[in-house]
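Chain A, query sequence.
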Amino acid sequence: MSYTSSESLRISEIFYSLQGETSRVGLPTVFVRLTGCPLRCTYCDTAYAFTGGQTMTLQSIMDEVARYTPRYITVTGGEPLAQKNCLILLRALCETGYDVSLETGGALDVSGVDKRVMKVLDIKTPASGEVQKNLWSNLAHLNSHDEIKFVLCDEADYQWAKQLLQERELTQHCAVLFSPAQGQLAAKELAEWILRDRLPVRLQVQLHKLLWGNEAGH
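Chain A, predicted structure.
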């Protein structure tokens, strides 16, 4: 598959590591991190991807990804969908035969994402500072292989997410992940709440931070 010179994206980094989140945790994965994000969540750990990076053609991105001979690819950010050519990149990665996932903040429309892509949709909580940006129409475009993620900062966030889980019947769409915001909520405490309330969610702890701390490129 070849691409035109006009089909390019601003890339923060492309790297090979273990997937630290979602149901694919622990799997060797190539990460394609796009530059830019319209959100400013209080707990963001990739603020370095808001600006900078380099412009790369789709062909050069595909060539760089292929160097690692991967099976799994994660397109992330920033907010990858803020760049319109992200949809072309996702389709190209699927056409090449990779198992592709997309990490998106939930504020931008996901309806155009290739159906083969596993969408990981982050629903913003009150403590994120961006709860008003949630695009609720995205829920209608989720498939059973997609996942919904909540990053929770405190018990108020947990109670808000618990109510939303029930009101919108989120587990009828796909798997739901509850993740503690690093340095704000202890994973053990969140685990106890989930067990106490018998919630049908998966506790998610960021494997990459357990292994490498906050190093960039992991």
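Helices lie at 58-66, 86-95, 155-167, 187-197, 207-212. The beta strands are 8-18, 28-34, 54-57, 72-76, 99-104, 118-123, 147-152, 175-180, 202-203.
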